[in-house]
Design goal:
Two copies of one chain form a homodimer.
Chain A lengths: L1 E4 L6 E2 L6 E9 L8 E13 L9 E7 L2 E5 L2 E5 L3 E5 L5 E5 L5 E8 L5
Antiparallel strand pairs in A: 2-3, 3-4, 4-10, 5-8, 5-10, 6-7, 6-9
């Protein structure tokens, strides 16, 4: 049983190569009871982005606020609040904040994607 | 690979006993590529609630907008945007909208909880 406001959860800068003005919070994972998966929240400041990359694990996304683009299959598609996505393992992808305010989104990965 | 705005996803009234002014959308699940799990979005209209109930599967929640309460361990705890929760199988729980606007939240369950 776990309930926490993300505003009270530590936000860490994403240091991966290619990440710009990007921050991550771990919301719910094995430590909170969810075996095998981790729900994180990413926040991109103005002009921020996640790396353009791929990895073996899939992820599941949901845009909380802000506007931007999601690179999928070589195409930058516009995203905004309540957009949901499934990105399979091996697919090149990148989130960019193209708006004036923060872009934040949920990103759920199998444990191997987080630890 | 899947990307969709939840505004374009069908919203169905929740007909379970005890549900009031409650609607559900299926955002990402096995049909979109996520084997074993389903991410849904629930929306509670004014004075709406989900059933006060328990079930064998856990769920993982994230509040998107609005304000309300989440019954956990017999206590109604206040929730608002960006609250994250893990509710283990067997725990009695209930979401209530106590605000003037809609309360919406993500609810992730294993497939057995949806199908």
């Amino acid at each position: 049983m776990y309930l926490e406001d993300a505003k009270n959860i530590e936000s860490k800068a994403v240091n991966a190569p290619g990440a710009v003005n990007a921050f991550k919070q771990v919301l719910v994972g094995p430590l909170q009871g969810w075996d095998g998966w981790v729900m994180r929240q990413f926040t991109l400041g103005k002009s921020g982005c996640t790396p353009r990359h791929s990895h073996s694990w899939p992820h599941i996304n949901f845009v909380v606020k802000g506007t931007g683009t999601l690179l999928l299959q070589g195409e930058e598609r516009e995203i905004g609040p309540e957009c949901a996505a499934y990105i399979p393992g091996g697919a090149v992808h990148q989130f960019k904040n193209t708006g004036e305010s923060e872009l934040s989104f949920i990103c759920i990965v199998p444990e191997e994607g987080e630890f």
